């Protein structure tokens, strides 16, 4: 079957390319031969090419018809589009519109084009070539695109107008729709219809792109999710930690995928994916037998019934557990899993320490970045890793003190779930602004706010130390500023430099070099006056009663063998004693200060209690 019914809605699959094969490493950044071998018994010729081992995907749209409207979801690659970097998408000539007409719908009859995201293989048929110009394929439709998603690609286009964005699809498949006045930019939780038999809404699906979304259909007792690129291939049902190479935030993408599978488990909901190949049909299918899920209907319309998944258990299962003599540690390379975006302050600190500690330990320490939820997703992954000494992290105030103080249901315990290796150093948070921002200090900012002018500030996430510092300022000085949370500090700094936001809180490691080279200006230090930026007055010096020190520390999963913990601690102490490391940390605004692991653990426990009281006294609540 290629059709399902959801309440009063009929959903048909519109095929563009039924089967395309991709190299495994091109599709999944962290796939291994072992993962494929574990699932090879049910990954038959429909999913993997037997001769080459390449993964097979389908490219298709979904045509949704209700009594009062018709919508098309994700419009594949498109014809005649020049994509030289991906030959299988280049200059296609596919009967996509003919396939749609065969279902009884002409392009002129489509009321809505719904884009889960704006990647090249999901927007191609937004436009068609007519008399040498790209024009909207669906001339009477409203094209619904995520506002955040569009702004992300628009910024890239504006920064380099002559460089193709997203393989050129932004220029030939998105901008012509905008120019024609047919684009409507929506939030990630936008609701289009709420009829009892035909409800349709977007939902946030972070991780794959800057503003990735999924689409929910509800009708009567029926429910379906059009997941776009939340899940690409059936192997991710068994190995959901496999990250697509295009994911902008792999950890968030994994969390979104896990949440979707858990939401649909033990329910009769349809999962309508964007790329699953070949129709499957019930319990005789090997995928069904392996996953204990039943396939029916629209090719990959999956009826999830009995899959129950645990994010942490799966992550643990994905990582090999090594049994070795702790005295011989380390015998191979070590992973430093950092919950910060590459290029951000925490990432720079981690890489600096990894390089020096690797020399001391005699083994290389490589970096993995897993961002999301103000650093708590990557930190959760560390807690779930084997306690063999081959996964370590650098945590800041947000991940190990502040988040536990304000999130009662945090997925990890910052004390019980970690072995504290030792303190790295202390720093402050900087309140910074663009060079043309009208205020130069807290006094000027208060005056600006009291004029009634709207003020927005950015931080690197909800519940981050940066947000907390801004909240303290607002609470104590009676001003109002609107919070704009960013997905990582590197993106926040980039938007600040680009003038997309004028005021922000940054950690010292990110702010210090930008302030020193004059790219931005600093208004105040949330914490102590920093020796790295001695001319910037602290909160307390500017009348805000707050002067707590903010610390960085190194952690490993709980239960680490004592000999291994001692070796890591000694290597950290040695690194912090190195003159070059000291100089570079000070340049990042961090005052090096080694404190042994057990002592730092006790300090953290006291700080969590103290920050809870600070939050209570200031009336700060992060939901």
What does this structure look like?
The chain is of the alpha/beta class and 623 residues long. It folds into two domains: 3-312, 4-Layer Sandwich (Metallo-beta-lactamase, Chain A), CATH 3.60.15.10; 321-623, D-Maltodextrin-Binding Protein, domain 2, CATH 3.40.190. Strand 22 (456-459), helix 15 (465-477) and strand 23 form a beta-alpha-beta unit. The chain starts with a strand and ends in a 5-residue tail after the last helix. Mean pLDDT is 85; it is low at 279-322.
List descriptors.
20 helices, 27 strands, 2 domains, 623 residues, D-Maltodextrin-Binding Protein, domain 2, seven-stranded mixed β-sheet, Metallo-beta-lactamase, Chain A
Within the CATH hierarchy, at the fold level, what is the topology of the largest domain? Metallo-beta-lactamase, Chain A
Strand content: 15-25%
CATH class of the largest domain: Alpha Beta
Shape assignment: globular
Mean pLDDT: 85
Based on secondary structure, the structural category is alpha/beta
Described by strand count, sense and barrel closure, the largest sheet is: 7 strands, mixed
Distance between the termini: 44 Å
CATH architecture of the largest domain: 4-Layer Sandwich
User: Strand sequence of the main sheet, in spatial order?
Assistant: 1-2-3-4-5-8-9
Portion in helices = 25-40%
Q: Domains counted in the coordinates: how many?
A: 2
* Count of discrete alpha- or pi-helical segments spanning 4 or more residues: 20
The H-level CATH homologous superfamily of the largest domain, spelled out, is: Ribonuclease Z/Hydroxyacylglutathione hydrolase-like
Radius of gyration: 26 Å
* Low-confidence spans: 279-322
**DSSP, total strands:** 27
